[in-house]
């Protein structure tokens, strides 16, 4: 199976090779795209809540409320995150109670885990747990989760990337400070982690052309999940010293300068494979980081690079996968982020196009084997959990944030 569909001219979609996924003129996808935004968002909200019920049933109800995989990425915490998003949209207290129950089970399941990040570790359990407890008015439970969070200690071999490393812990600190209150996690604790990340990046970079560099499993990755884009993105959520800001900006300029002629980005240092257009590797995740850089530094170079990378996602990002890590759902967030940054309604249209395609076609294409539903088909990062989250974010597109990446 080829790895992507190609949008020729929206709203017409034609798949790579011989697979037709739509035709112009009167089909249901065209009809969806022609809806006024309010009508489309109502349609997507209804679809999202139905998907949420399916995800809850498959990942929570049918398991007897026992958790094996507690993580946000592929496990039960991802279900809790989705349910919390549904609560934020609908204010249904039953969702808040369900979310709290799932997090409690994740807390129990993660007690022997050494992982410390938001997406794949205990920091996510405690941070989300504390925020949900705040919304529930349970101050003692909120405090208990915060105390557990503050007791997290790093193993000596902890990497720096987002999914399993220091950046993933640092993101959880920013999440708590946003949702609970400033200085929930102290500046001193955050500063200690930032110092470690910056100093390590400088050491590995040495006298190379890139000011900061990091490795994960022996590879110098560039993308959001394991590499430079993800680490830099999280650093920009913190208060950087002037010299640190220059290291960050210099690293971004190095990345931009060394992109492929196509405008896409290598998955790792020295890679010549211009194939991946995913959040985890390639233009989508890097676009989100460049959007953040444009917001933080007000630099036109970063703005233009974000716009250029967004064009790559538009032309090559209609993947034959559904998820947010490496699928259409994640790539749609690129356009929502660019819309938030620029106010240009063209990006909202592009987000509508990708989202409408999923709403209209994903279930059928997955059942036909023409689209990959994810190895964990109900999960937040690989499966329809992420698609449901995207649909809910489309209700208020200007407030949309890529889950566990954009604060």
Automatic annotation (TrEMBL):
<dbReference type="InterPro" id="IPR020464">
    <property type="entry name" value="LanC-like_prot_euk"/>
</dbReference>
<dbReference type="InterPro" id="IPR012341">
    <property type="entry name" value="6hp_glycosidase-like_sf"/>
</dbReference>
<keyword id="KW-0479">Metal-binding</keyword>
<protein>
    <recommendedName>
        <fullName>LanC-like protein GCR2</fullName>
    </recommendedName>
</protein>
<feature type="binding site">
    <location>
        <position position="325"/>
    </location>
    <ligand>
        <name>Zn(2+)</name>
    </ligand>
</feature>
<dbReference type="InterPro" id="IPR007822">
    <property type="entry name" value="LANC-like"/>
</dbReference>
<feature type="binding site">
    <location>
        <position position="280"/>
    </location>
    <ligand>
        <name>Zn(2+)</name>
    </ligand>
</feature>
<dbReference type="GO" id="GO:0005886">
    <property type="term" value="C:plasma membrane"/>
</dbReference>
<keyword id="KW-0862">Zinc</keyword>
<feature type="binding site">
    <location>
        <position position="326"/>
    </location>
    <ligand>
        <name>Zn(2+)</name>
    </ligand>
</feature>
<dbReference type="GO" id="GO:0031179">
    <property type="term" value="P:peptide modification"/>
</dbReference>
<dbReference type="Pfam" id="PF05147">
    <property type="entry name" value="LANC_like"/>
</dbReference>
<dbReference type="GO" id="GO:0046872">
    <property type="term" value="F:metal ion binding"/>
</dbReference>
<comment type="similarity">
    <text>Belongs to the LanC-like protein family.</text>
</comment>
<dbReference type="GO" id="GO:0005975">
    <property type="term" value="P:carbohydrate metabolic process"/>
</dbReference>
């Amino acid at each position: 199976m080829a790895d992507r569909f190609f949008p020729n001219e929206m709203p017409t979609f034609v798949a790579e090779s011989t697979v037709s996924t739509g035709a112009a003129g009167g089909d249901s996808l065209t009809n969806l795209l022609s809806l006024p935004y309010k009508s489309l968002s109502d349609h997507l909200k209804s679809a999202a809540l139905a998907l949420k019920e399916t995800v809850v049933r498959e990942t929570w109800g049918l398991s007897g409320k026992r958790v094996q995989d507690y993580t946000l990425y592929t496990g039960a915490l991802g279900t809790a995150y989705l349910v919390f998003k549904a609560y934020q949209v609908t204010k249904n207290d039953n969702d808040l109670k369900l979310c709290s129950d799932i997090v409690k089970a994740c807390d129990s399941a993660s007690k022997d885990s050494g992982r410390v990040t938001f997406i794949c570790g205990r920091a996510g359990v405690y941070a989300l747990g504390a925020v949900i407890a705040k919304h529930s008015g349970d101050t003692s439970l909120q405090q208990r989760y915060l105390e557990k969070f503050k007791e997290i200690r790093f193993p000596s071999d902890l990497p720096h990337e987002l999914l399993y490393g220091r950046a993933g812990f640092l993101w959880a600190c920013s999440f708590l400070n946003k949702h609970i209150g400033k200085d929930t996690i102290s500046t001193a604790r955050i500063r200690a982690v930032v110092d470690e990340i910056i100093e390590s990046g400088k050491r590995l970079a040495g006298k190379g052309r890139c000011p900061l560099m990091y490795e994960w499993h022996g590879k110098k990755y560039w993308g959001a999940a394991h590499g430079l884009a993800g680490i830099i993105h999280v650093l920009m959520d913190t208060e950087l010293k002037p010299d640190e800001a220059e290291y960050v900006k210099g690293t971004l300029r190095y990345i931009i300068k060394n992109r492929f002629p196509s405008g896409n980005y290598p998955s790792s240092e020295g890679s010549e494979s211009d194939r991946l257009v995913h959040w985890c590797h390639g233009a989508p995740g890097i676009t989100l980081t460049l959007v953040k850089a444009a917001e933080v530094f007000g630099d036109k170079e970063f703005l233009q690079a974000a716009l250029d990378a967004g064009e790559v996602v538009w032309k090559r990002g209609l993947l034959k996968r559904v998820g947010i890590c490496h699928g259409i759902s994640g790539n749609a967030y690129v356009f929502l982020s660019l819309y938030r940054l620029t106010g240009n309604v063209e990006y909202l249209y592009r987000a509508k196009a990708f989202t409408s395609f999923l709403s209209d076609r994903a279930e059928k294409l997955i059942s036909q084997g023409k689209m990959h539903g994810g190895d964990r088909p109900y999960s937040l990062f690989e499966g329809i959990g992420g698609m449901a989250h995207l649909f809910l974010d489309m209700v208020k597109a200007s407030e949309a944030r890529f889950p566990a990446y954009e604060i």
